[in-house]
Amino acid sequence: MAIGRTLTKQLTVEARQHEILGLDLGEGPKRSTIALGLAAVIIWSGVCLLVIGPPTADTLTLYLLPPGVALGMGLQEDAQNPRRTRLTGWALRIRYVLIGHRPILALGTTPARRGEMIPARFRLVGPAVAARLPFPTEWFVPDDIASIGRPRRDRPLRLAQTARLYGTDHLARAIEKKAKTR
Amino acid sequence: MKTIDRFLSMIGVDPARRIPPPDLLAIADGLLVTTTKTEAWFEVRTSNTDLADPDTLETEIRQVIRTAGKILTDKDCHLKVVWGTVDGAAYAEDAHTVFRAGMWQEWAGMTAARIDELNLPDRHILLGVELDAFDGRVFARTRTQTGAMLGMEPRRVPDGDLVRLLGQVKQIGRSLQSSPLRARPASAEVLAWSIAREQYRTAGAIARHGSIQGAALAHLTRGRVVPFHDHLRIHGTDGSVAAYAAVLALADFPEELDVPGNGEWLRTLSEIVRIDETGAELPVIVDASVRFRVLSRQQSLKLAERTRTAAKEQRQSAAKHAAGETSTDIEDSEQVAEELVSDIRRQGLMLVNAHPRLLITGSSRDELAANIDAVISHYAGRGITAVTCPDEQRDLWLEQLPGDALRVPDLGHIQEDIAFFGSLFWGGSTVGDTTGPVRGYLTGSTPGLFRFSAIGGAKRGDATTTALLGRSGRGKTVAGMLLELDAAFAGAWTCMPDFKGDSGGVVDVAQQLGLPADLIRIGAEHAGAADLFGSIPLSDAPLQVTRQLTLLAPGNMRQIAETACLDAANRVAGTIRPTTAAVIDDLTRAADPDTARLGHALLNLAGTPLGAIVAGRPTGRTVLRRDPGVWNIQLPGLVLPSTESNPDTWDASQRVSLAAMRGITMHALHVSSDPQLRGMPKLIFVPEVHRMLRTDDGRDFLDQVARMGRAFDASLLLDSQDADGIAGIEGLVEQLSTVFAFQMTTARQQDALAELLHLPIDDSTRTLIRELAAPTDDGDGGEPSLRKGHCIMRDWRDQAATVQFDYPAAWVADALSTNADRTAAAAEERTAA
């Protein structure tokens, strides 16, 4: 019997930072966490700076708490996918709502028109979220959504893409031609 | 922008997700060109691994790894396992190359309809390898802008580039073809079908070579796919939803994968089933798409070294600080990386970076959900975590298209070469001929049809004998009759000495379908027809006639029979027209009273209707016709001894019956050597062969039958319940081109079958043979019934796989039934007619 190993985990070293500016951090946080935390604090601070001005003793919590909580929750393992964090799930959700829902018509050569898109209210509230809402959610996730994505017949499709099939006869001629020119 | 991209990729939203869908420029045999990349595509042939022993399997995997190490390293590869359907119409269209006699169109048409009814999935394994010789981006940019202005065809790939790319395809193809993958450049039809299939999810069959028209080509990329939160809706050409699909990722693998075992994660795709509301098992059709890169020795070393360095740095850093010791994960990484460096350097181990995805479809949301559950459960049972990927179905769907690229890199795996190639994506079951009559379907891990012609060996110049071995009532005789009908429709002369009286059905079917056919009942008018002096070469005849007469001799005379008969037979052989009757006459005239008494005893037996056939005075009337058709011979009054009985206890009727059985078999073989039949395919189906093996000289007799069959270019079908007896006849075993092994229950017979099938003689093979024909539950709550016709086939290429013989139509099944009631009813009908 042959045995093969999967080494994904072993070959992915999550480096930890044991010290920052002379401060011993013990076990130390992951370096990726520090980078994400810094990015989150910078972005959030930028927003706060614009809205409430520079941080003061009273507003410092507002500056640090939301990115801290978001990072704390976001870096937990995703319940559905053991390879990912919740943060990835949130990012993908946002991406889906914005662009990830776009229909692929004729392999992307034809943009979908308004009526062919999944309406925003369906995109915003997925079935998992809708199931947790304390009120009827038909409006968000109706039973009958078969009509979504149906082609609109008012305008013809415009296709730029054309695939060309080269048959064996053409290829044989091309090879022959090439051989003669040598 | 780069910083944002790095930040996004750190949280799992890689910028690769933004690349546009593939813009197809050209498709040719083995080649796919888009504006961004060029790929060589190959179709991988299924290898017969289902019944392979672990050592053979490992050898095969190592061979594939060596090939991959030679030609695939550091190239982006894309493996696709996709399913079409086996098309009955294609079989009917090609039937004229197989059949030519009687109403063969009807026979092929029934089989074609049955193929459609079976609705068997047809697996295609496609392997794409990125080529780097053609920069489609430069091409598209310059050609589409400047070329269009000058009125040139902007999307045409220059012939020079095509030829260069085809050269690369051939180069890779040569190595792949000589490996166990036996891959050939995928035809343009296969590539077009594969692209269109993703767009419409209509499985269908691949178009025949050279049959793609403009409309079909234009159809390729007109699909409409709408990504919902957790699934995709694929619309048909009429705008309605044609299929619901979802792409799953295999997110986690066990650290160790065993082959055979849970390591065969791609081979087992076709084994996924779900239980419907009625409790019936339904197959779940799952496509696989794996983008992978075989890392070269340098790249593998670099990765291992990098990991080792990082882990070491972490360990040292922890030691310097309050942490003291690093985590066990880091320690493990350092140790594994060190071992890897050593293995890569010393043993040539390679690493593979793979991104496996599964594409599941359903005709409704509920069916899709049930299929997804079945897939997740199937892989969970093997320790593999398959996950649904909400909010990224669009990216994952695009990623699995030929010509696209890796979009979701964070769900990939780094595996040792044996772990990745141990997935056995090319494994499964395949057996039988590539052309010829469809005689049933495969029951191994890859569904499909099996083709076999019992007269194929003679055409190949190979051995001509096929054996059907197994217990009584497991469908051997009916399988033989189906093969006889196939041969007859192919224009062969076929003959079946019917010793049990249940072959009338095959004649009825042949007659109904316009084949010349008759059930010949042997009577007094055929006296001497099966005289061995007339059937076998004169040099062999005295010995064989002696054996025949010794068999006929009463038990108390057997001591002298052999010497006396041989003496007489030798004398008679020197006469002008030697006959067995003349030998008996010679014995009766002997001076020795015992010999004369033996002669009289034999004379009495020769006077019986059956005895007359082998030892009577020849009437000169032939039994068999010499034109193509189905000519079965029935011997009324045949009383065959039971398989278990002792030859010493046989009575006169049993001895005469066995002698008649031998005589008729030889007679059929002799007729097949007739000059009129030369150049015509011939098939003789000899049932109940095990009864011939009960006597001491039975083995020699069978050996002679097989050798004569080969000499006369006549194909033989031998049906026996005694595999052990057959396996003991070395000469016969050498003549066996194909073996069909049906259920056996004793260890001795199972071991003999294993030897004939060239399978390991061990418990797993014994269990496999015992479980053939295991009772199946029809799902209606009725009594489970025996699965007749289920067997292991070993073909002339030495491939073995489990197959199920199948009837072209229900009425044929009814007519060929050897069930006692059915046989009696058919005989009555025939008499009345």
What would you note in describing this structure?
The complex is a heterodimer of chains A (182) and B (833). By secondary structure, chain A is mainly alpha-helical. Among the domains of chain A are: 29-93, no CATH class; 103-147, no CATH class. Chain A has six helices and five strands. Chain A has a two-stranded antiparallel sheet. In chain A, a hairpin with a 2-residue loop joins strand 2 (19-20) and strand 3. The longest helix of chain A has 22 residues, at 31-52. The model of chain A has no long low-confidence stretch (mean pLDDT 80). By secondary structure, chain B is of the alpha+beta class. In chain B, 42% of the residues lie in helices and 20% in strands. Chain B is built from 31 helices and 29 strands. In chain B, strands 1, 2, 3, 5, 6, 7, 8, 9, 10, 14, 15, 16 and 17 form a 13-stranded antiparallel beta sheet that branches. In chain B, strands 20-19-29-28-27-21-26-25-22-24-23 form an eleven-stranded mixed beta sheet, with helices on both faces. In chain B, a hairpin with a 5-residue loop joins strand 28 (790-794) and strand 29 (800-805). In chain B, helix 18 (541-552) runs antiparallel to helix 23, helix 21 (593-606) crosses helix 22 (609-615) and helix 22 (609-615) packs across helix 23 (652-672). Chain B is elongated and about 115 Å long. Chain B starts with a helix and ends with a helix. The relative contact order of chain B is 0.11. The chains are: A mainly alpha (182), B alpha+beta (833). Chains A and B meet through strand 1, helix 1, helix 3, strand 4 and strand 5 of A and helix 1, strand 1, helix 2, helix 6 and helix 7 of B. Strand 4 of chain A pairs antiparallel with strand 8 (224-227) of chain B.
